[in-house]
From TrEMBL:
Catalysed reaction, written as an equation: oxalyl-CoA + H(+) = formyl-CoA + CO2
Enzyme class: lyase
Domain Thiamine pyrophosphate enzyme N-terminal TPP-binding positions: 21-137
Biological source species: Bradyrhizobium sediminis
Alphabetical GO biological process terms: fatty acid alpha-oxidation; oxalate catabolic process
Keywords noted in UniProt: Decarboxylase, Lyase, Magnesium, Metal-binding, Nucleotide-binding, Thiamine pyrophosphate
Domain of life: Bacteria
Name assigned to this protein: Oxalyl-CoA decarboxylase
EC number, UniProt record: 4.1.1.8
Domain annotation Thiamine pyrophosphate enzyme TPP-binding: ranges: 410-552
Length: 578
């Protein structure tokens, strides 16, 4: 039971035990196995954080709420329990809301708990401290939003938030706790009875047998089948069954970036290095926890070629089906149940895919890998992306248990194709929205939730969104090695101001920046690396030591291209100056 307040009833002159909103929130979290909170302290939740720590909950305090929210979101992805972010009201809530919206888009279970101003004043718009109708603002940007006004409802409010976050398609949930809720007092025994332990928060959703049979029939008819694994497949933690399905079927598979490692990228059936070929030439495509969004060119257009396609889709959300193209065999249910049902239908008589297809995929993959190999072995100084990533590729190969966090433009686009992954849920990146700023939040939560060493590979622009959190990494002495690909700017550092004025171009940063000095300022290890060999030695030393480390990897300012491989998303002017 929580700490209690002793008080004297003046009328009955007897002593009874009381509890309050602070303790009920903490007890409700602990009852449901939530033992870590990510957040930023301040009015009105400062004491909640202090008391949570005193009660044995780990409270990780950040420098900005968006980074704390990103940490909570990826904690949810890694653990299948909702990560919790705790913020102050109004601006702090808004900072956390960006991460909550991103979590919802990526299907990461997360709860944003924010203190808020008094309802009576907010509703009359009388100008309270940090006045804002936070519940109304949050609702369109998350899966569910709740407000608790009475201490007796804290248990049910948190239970609803937990169930909403993890059931069905996971996502972000907002829980609004007005400031005066925390000091509300009630009988301790009644308070204990008001708490709810959530049972079977994410119940299995079994696919219909007819849907499973339809999918197997379509798959069996394929001449050029392909399996695409999305991050939903990684989240499901049905690793053994997914591997068995791929291997028993003999079908080539293409992992999306956060699904890399479900089967090793070096697996003989992996088509990652032949992506263009398999998307263009496949005739039947089975999507497992992947969506036909912009990352897969919406399932149509030049990327997918002229060959007619049939799509099988496995997803827990029925509305995802037919979102861009016709799905001829929808299988609705949780991925673990769906894969188990499909696996039961693949027996020893299952026909192997035609050898001309698997042979063509293998040949294309091997050819592309061979063409890339020399570029990854260069030791140029200053570095280019391929030389630097070649060094980091070797680090992950030697340390497959390490977690890779990756963000940027070129840094992201190239790394996800070059660095092979060998175990599931070891690659964490920008996901569905393609946002920047997730790096330090993801790295901190990955280290805390798994205890594994983390390698965060950041573009210099991407790092700027959350760079101050290197102090947080040092404060908690986390085994995080941050590598910044520093080419002096966004995309590259060679743009010039066309007017000839004193201002640099909008995409250019301070030349010769030494990001490593930032880490040294907080007691961590800072290293400046100018060649792939230096980079490899520095990262190895960091990963061996487990000490907070930041490596400033000096890249050629001309290295990089506009927006990496998604440059077509940047509109171009068709007008020419006269």
């Amino acid at each position: 039971m929580s700490a209690v307040v002793q008080t004297i009833d003046a009328n009955a002159a007897d002593e009874r035990e009381l509890t309050d909103g602070f303790h009920l929130v903490i007890d409700a979290l602990k009852l449901n196995g939530i033992n870590t909170i990510y957040g930023v302290p301040g009015i009105p939740i400062t004491d909640l954080g202090r008391m949570a720590q005193a009660a044995g909950i780990r409270v990780i305090s950040f420098r900005h709420e968006q980074n704390a929210g990103n940490a909570a979101a990826i904690a949810g992805f890694l653990t299948k329990k909702p990560g919790v972010c705790l913020t102050v009201s109004a601006p702090g809530f808004l900072n956390g809301l960006t991460a909550l919206a991103n979590a919802t888009t990526n299907c990461f279970p997360m709860i944003l708990i924010s203190g808020s101003s008094e309802r009576e004043i907010v509703d009359l718009q009388q100008g309270d401290y940090e006045e804002m109708d936070q519940l109304a603002i949050a609702k369109p940007l998350c899966k569910a939003a709740f407000r608790v006004l009475h201490a007796a409802d804290i248990g049910i409010g948190l239970a609803r938030a937990i169930r909403a976050a993890v059931s069905g398609r996971p996502g972000g949930v907002y829980l609004d706790l007005p400031g005066k809720l925390f000091s509300q007092v009630m009988d301790a025994e009644a308070g204990a009875k008001s708490l709810v332990k959530v049972i079977d928060a994410a119940p299995a959703q079994i696919p219909a047998p007819a849907a499973v049979k339809r999918a197997l029939d379509v798959l069996k008819s394929a001449k050029r089948p392909l399996i695409i694994l999305g991050k939903g497949a990684a989240y499901a933690q049905a690793d053994d069954d997914i591997r068995a399905l791929v291997e028993k079927s003999g079908i080539p598979f293409l992992p999306m970036s956060m699904a890399k490692g479900l089967l090793p990228d070096t697996h003989p059936q992996c088509a990652g290095a032949a992506r263009s070929t398999v998307l263009k030439d496949a005739d039947v495509v089975m999507l497992i926890g992947a969506r036909l969004n912009w990352l897969l060119s919406h399932g149509k257009g030049k990327t997918w070629g002229e060959a007619p396609k049939k799509f099988i889709q496995i997803d827990i959300e029925p509305r995802e089906m037919d979102s861009n193209v016709e799905i001829v065999a929808p299988v609705v249910g949780d991925i673990g149940s769906c894969i188990a049902a499909l696996l039961a239908g693949i027996d020893g008589k299952w026909p192997a895919p035609p050898s001309d297809w698997t042979g063509a995929v293998r040949a294309k993959r091997d050819d592309n890998v061979a063409k890339m190999a020399p570029r990854l072995m260069n030791n140029n100084s200053p570095m280019d992306y391929h030389g630097a990533l070649g060094a980091l590729r070797s680090v992950i190969k030697e340390r497959p248990d390490a977690i890779l966090v990756n963000e940027g433009a070129n840094t992201l686009d190239l790394a996800r194709g070059i660095i092979d992954m060998y175990q599931p849920r070891k690659r964490l990146d920008v996901g569905t929205w393609g946002v920047m700023g997730i790096g330090m939040g993801f790295a901190i939560a990955a280290a805390i939730e798994t205890g594994k060493p983390v390698l965060a590979v950041e573009g210099d622009s991407a790092f700027g969104f959350s760079g101050m959190e290197v102090e947080t990494i040092c404060r908690y002495n986390l085994p995080v090695c941050v590598v910044i690909f520093n080419n002096n700017g966004i995309y590259r550092g060679t743009d010039v101001n066309p007017t000839g004025g004193a201002d640099v171009a909008p995409t250019v940063f301070v030349k010769g920046s030494r990001y490593d000095k930032m880490m040294e300022a907080f007691g961590g290890v800072g290293i400046n690396a100018t060649s792939p060999d230096e980079l490899k030695r520095a990262v190895d030393a960091a990963m061996n030591s487990g000490k907070p480390t930041l490596i400033n990897a000096v890249l050629d300012p001309a290295a990089g291209s506009e927006s990496g491989r998604i440059g077509n998303l940047n509109p171009q002017s068709k007008l020419k100056k006269k």
